[in-house]
Specification:
It is a single chain. The chain is of the alpha+beta class. Helix content is 29%, strand content 24%. It has a 4-stranded mixed sheet with strand order 2-1-4-3, sandwiched between helices. The two termini are 25 Å apart. The mean pLDDT is 92.
Amino acid sequence: MISLSQQVLRTDASGMPLEWVGYQDAVRLYHLGQVAYSCGSPLYRVHGGINAVTGLRSVIIVNSIIATYGSSHALKRARAHYTPPLNNPALFKRDARLCLYCGERFQRHELSRDHVTPITLKGEDVWSNVVTACKRCNNHKAGRTPEQAGMELLAVPFTPTHAEYVYLQSKRVLADQMEFLLAHFPRKSPLHARLSKP
């Protein structure tokens, strides 16, 4: 049984991932005729009212992935220059909740955002300069670069693409949604390797 909190992956008509929507928003898109097609597994069967003329009850079946109409040319141009907003939950998920200094996996509350080049040394608060670090490693590194602190950085930080960021924003991804998203990740995305590990 699927929980009502399970989100639906919304794409544009060309199949590019856009965002996650709740079942109510998905039903609204179906009702307004904005769904071009759907794929993935059926998640919800939503019953509406009874038609006074036909006596039939309306039913909308919501699939796990829905493609909606809209201008994809403008979206493609915008996506080429897109930088997703930086936030800790997405950062920790990008790095698979691993401390990129000691290599251990931690719970979210045990993690922190580390600036590879510290802000005090003119480092920026951007995806390409931040990594997930356990609080112990972050405190040990302090306001130094990894080299100055004698610490090895285990992976190079990267800025997620739009499709990768859609994944990073998810709470629970179903197998068919994950397969769909992975097809939109760059071939050399570090997320491929991180997602294949247990």
